[in-house]
Amino acid sequence: MGALSFQLALGLYLVAAALAMAQLLRASRLLQGLSLLGAGLGFCLHLLYILYRYFGAGHVPIASPHEATSFFAWCIFLIFFALQYRYRLGLLGAFVIPLGAALMVVAALMPQELRPLSPVLRSHWLGVHTVLAFLANASFALATGVGLMYLVQEHYVKSKHLGELFQRLPSLQRLDELNYRLITVGFPLFSLAIITGALWAQNAWGSYWSWDPREVWSLVTWLIFATVLHARLLRGWRGRRAALLTILGFVTILVAFFGIKLLRKGQHVFL
């Protein structure tokens, strides 16, 4: 049942991603509705898969590369639907759903068997620290999608070729404000993830900070998003600069998330 739920969710996400991308070429309420429906059904099946692994393993299923990548994708869709419910941004799916679907494809290529939890992970900090981190990263992923929308819309404005896609994209001001709101949600969550991670490290290894590669990249990410907030509030950085810094911050998240797993270096590689 677990494997079937995952495969069905993956298939629905891929269909939803294709339909969402098609919206960039053609305005269609039908395409938008089918894309959201497909992503929504995939999200529900994905949740069933996560619950299946949770009850099968007895802990939050984020301890292996497959589980972590799958859970990351699920968190992105969670924030996406919350944002879609609140703001009704029709084209947002074209900039976000493909990312979630791509993460699911990567997860599908990784070993999926349930394994015993490593001794260092047998802690109440596992769920607290990692869930905070994934929700923060998902918020930054959505901010990146909004940032990409901003850059596309800005291109149309500067080129003065205000085509049909320009009419369907939100205004630059609205996109800039939404980017800021997403970062103000993700940044405190990310800060708490770093703090709880330090407390967990002290409990597990006797040191709050060891300059582990994941810790270093997390610090770099934190500094980038702190710069976005600081520059916006005190220097008036908005629009393009904020969008580009947001995208850069999310790139560091992907480097930390996948690079360390590929290199298999540092204390954050458990399996």
- Report the sheet with the most strands, covering strand number, pairing sense and barrel closure: none
The overall pLDDT average reads: 87
Mind telling me the C-alpha Rg?
Answer: 19 Å
Strand % is under 5%
Main features:
9 helices; 0% strand; 2 domains; mainly alpha; single chain; 271 residues; 77% helix
Map the helices and strands.
Blueprint: H1 2-22, H2 29-57, H3 65-87, H4 92-108, H5 125-159, H6 164-168, H7 172-205, H8 213-234, H9 240-263
Please explain how this structure is put together:
It is a single chain. The protein has helices at residues 2-22, 29-57, 65-87, 92-108, 125-159, 164-168, 172-205, 213-234, 240-263. It is mostly helical and 271 residues long. The protein has 2 domains: 1-117; 118-271, no CATH class. α3 crosses α5, α7 packs antiparallel against α8 and α8 runs antiparallel to α9 (240-263). The longest helix is centred in the middle third of the chain and has 35 residues, at 125-159. It is flat and about 60 Å long. The two termini are 24 Å apart. The model has no long low-confidence stretch (mean pLDDT 87).
Short description:
The chain has 271 residues and is an all-alpha fold.
